Amino acid sequence: MVALAEELEIPVDAGTDQHRLLRAITKQLLDFARAGKRVALCIDESQAMPLDTLEALRLLTNLETEKRKLLQVVLFGQPELDHKLQAESIRQLRQRIVFEQKLVGLARDEVGAYVMHRLAVAGYSGQPLLRSRALAALHQASRGVPRLVNILMHKAMLLAYGENSRSVENRHVRAAVQDTPAATPARRWWWPVLRASS
Predict the structure, then answer these.
(1) Would you say 126 and 161 are in contact if contact means Cβ atoms under 8 Å apart?
(2) What whole-number distance in Å separates Cα of residue 150 and Cα of residue 79?
(3) What is d(CA 5, CA 38) in angstroms, rounded to the nearest whole number?
């Protein structure tokens, strides 16, 4: 709550207890509401928040006028957040969640477009760097997760650069995957043949 108070430009003394802090936040939010302003609290990586902090968020979601909530809370987090929200101690917070969206990984063509966009932002304007098989391997290994796409592509480009290659080949992506524990290893394209002896 101290961080929220600071964002709302509320002076906070070191010894301020939670009750007084909540009153000060409520007053400031009411002032914003009277001025016709809406306040949204967006928290990234919220799966790392302790249960006590999540419970404090519940108290903030109680703040409302007769017509609307004074504070909208938006949580962004990894799948571990879902597990944390199942805790009995914060079930009341879970009951207050109105909208929930799970993001899935990018599709193969979206991974290619994403890589090209990142390269364009960095100043690259040449031909696509990824060969077709390399793109397929990148998509499969990253599961379409942008953070993993970035890591694997960075490593694969370094390997290609080390070979003085103008394109990222399948072997570069495979080597990057082997060097990245979070990546999904490539599936084998062959299946062992089982033979029964007579």
Answers:
(1) no
(2) 20
(3) 16
Specify the 3-state DSSP secondary structure of 102. Answer: coil
Answer whether 152's CB lies under 8 Å from 173's CB. Answer: yes
Q: Which pair of structure tokens corresponds to residue 129?
A: 């760097």
| Per-residue pLDDT reduced to its tens digit, 80-136 | 999 999 999 889 988 988 899 888 899 999 999 999 999 999 999 988 899 999 999
To the question of pTM greater than 0.85 for the whole model, the response is no
149: its two tokens: 């796409």
Under 8 Å between Cβ of 179 and 155 = yes
Q: Which residue in this structure is represented by tokens 């033979």?
A: 195
48 has pLDDT over 90: yes
| The three-state (H, E, C) secondary structure of 3-27, written as one string | HHHHHCCCCCCCCCCHHHHHHHHHH
Answer left, alpha or beta for residue 23, where phi above 0 means left and psi between -120 and 50 means alpha: alpha
Torsion of CA 176, 154, 147, 41, to 10 degrees: 160
What does the alpha-carbon distance between residue 3 and residue 44 come to, in Å, rounded to a whole number?
14
Looking at residue 132, its amino acid is: S
